[in-house]
């Protein structure tokens, strides 16, 4: 399939600026792939579709406050630094993006905080936009991380930052309730709809939750610039699938129960580690898997996802799972029915 096939007209006013007051009170569009029918529900109604022995797979990655605003030495020019990943904790080395990139050279120092409490030196130009920074911080590591957290802002996608400022509330809004392993710069947004109460009610019905960790990177939002999708390369992201998650998922598969993947990052994770017989296996490493139609899925029987932006990798993966024509029909209906799109928007359950 081609990039242009995933273009559609999304009215700007349908991009949600903030989540609903209660996480599990968003709307839910339910797509049935067998009957090609569409239902309009509330997210709490997801309880009606699952029961004893079913398994949900969730991504327990935790978003860290990766956006820093600083000044360049001597000139005082404002520089935005997007922390991508920690390269070496002891040496305080980080892989980052800087904006505007043209003003930053190797050897430049950047100052952060009103009292310049954090200083970084540019030591490498890794890509056209990327840099490697060494933070010049003498204190213990815990103190360094606290300083980053106090100065950093929530790394909302640029499309959201274009329509509003980052708010203090985003620190909680842009995090799933089960986030526990810090390392992501993008939230697994399908999981934002789950409340503690809803998860408990699903467990009382006999459903299980298997946690995997995929530290979602900024590549999820980087524009695809090739028409031929086979030529697009996704950024690598750190992935961990442990034995307990494998046990829960494979038990549900063996018993022919439902296996519901929560979100495209989780889908990417589990489809990166499949045995020849189509079962999940443990994994520790990196994945740059890019899923687009046509694709034969091994692990899930259903998925929860959000409403994605045009031409995004997340839309392509969802189309591969739901069926391209059926999904585009559903998106047309979602626009007509004024569903809320993107990060803080409504949810879709694909059965």
From TrEMBL:
Top-rank taxon: Bacteria
Reactions catalysed: 7-aminomethyl-7-carbaguanosine(34) in tRNA + S-adenosyl-L-methionine = epoxyqueuosine(34) in tRNA + adenine + L-methionine + 2 H(+)
Record keyword Transferase present: yes
Record's subcellular location: Cytoplasm
Subunit structure: Monomer.
One GO cellular component, as annotated: cytoplasm
MF-aspect GO terms: S-adenosylmethionine:tRNA ribosyltransferase-isomerase activity
Protein name: S-adenosylmethionine:tRNA ribosyltransferase-isomerase
Principal subcellular localisation of the protein: cytoplasm
Family: Belongs to the QueA family.
Pathway(s) it belongs to: tRNA modification; tRNA-queuosine biosynthesis
Keywords from the UniProt entry: Cytoplasm, Isomerase, Queuosine biosynthesis, S-adenosyl-L-methionine, Transferase
Enzyme Commission designation: 2.4.99.17
GO biological process per UniProt: tRNA queuosine(34) biosynthetic process
Function according to Swiss-Prot or TrEMBL: Transfers and isomerizes the ribose moiety from AdoMet to the 7-aminomethyl group of 7-deazaguanine (preQ1-tRNA) to give epoxyqueuosine (oQ-tRNA).
Organism: Lentimicrobium saccharophilum
InterPro entries: QueA, QueA_dom1, QueA_dom2, QueA_sf
């Amino acid at each position: 399939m081609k990039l242009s096939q995933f273009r559609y007209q999304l009215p700007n006013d349908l991009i949600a600026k903030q989540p609903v007051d209660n996480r599990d009170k968003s709307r839910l569009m339910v797509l049935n792939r067998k009957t090609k029918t569409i239902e309009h529900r509330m997210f709490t109604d997801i309880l009606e579709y699952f029961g004893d022995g079913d398994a949900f797979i969730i991504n327990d990655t935790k978003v860290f406050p990766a956006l820093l605003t600083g000044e360049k030495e001597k000139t005082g020019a404002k520089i935005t630094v997007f922390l991508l990943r920690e390269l070496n904790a002891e040496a305080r080395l980080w892989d980052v993006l800087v904006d505007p990139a043209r003003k930053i050279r190797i050897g430049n120092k950047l100052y952060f905080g009103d009292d310049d409490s954090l200083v970084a030196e540019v030591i490498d130009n890794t890509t056209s936009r990327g840099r490697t920074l060494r933070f010049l911080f003498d204190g213990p590591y815990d103190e360094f991380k606290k300083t980053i957290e106090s100065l950093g802002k929530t790394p909302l996608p640029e499309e959201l930052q274009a329509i509003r400022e980052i708010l203090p509330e985003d620190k909680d809004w842009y995090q799933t309730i089960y986030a526990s392993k810090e390392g992501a710069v993008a939230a697994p947004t399908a999981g934002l709809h789950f409340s503690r109460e809803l998860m408990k009610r699903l467990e009382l019905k006999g459903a299980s939750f298997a946690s995997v960790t995929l530290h979602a990177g900024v590549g999820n939002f980087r524009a695809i610039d090739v028409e031929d999708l086979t030529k697009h390369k996704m950024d690598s992201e750190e992935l961990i699938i442990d034995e307990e998650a494998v046990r829960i998922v494979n038990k549900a598969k063996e018993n022919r129960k439902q296996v519901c993947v929560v979100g495209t990052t989780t889908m990417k994770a589990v489809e990166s580690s499949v045995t020849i017989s189509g079962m999940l296996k443990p994994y520790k490493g990196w994945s740059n898997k890019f899923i687009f139609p046509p694709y034969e899925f091994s692990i899930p029987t259903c998925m929860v996802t959000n409403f994605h932006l045009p031409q995004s990798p997340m839309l392509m993966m969802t189309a591969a799972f739901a069926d391209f024509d059926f999904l585009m029909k559903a998106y047309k209906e979602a626009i007509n029915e004024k569903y809320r799109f993107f990060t803080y928007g409504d949810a879709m359950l694909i059965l």
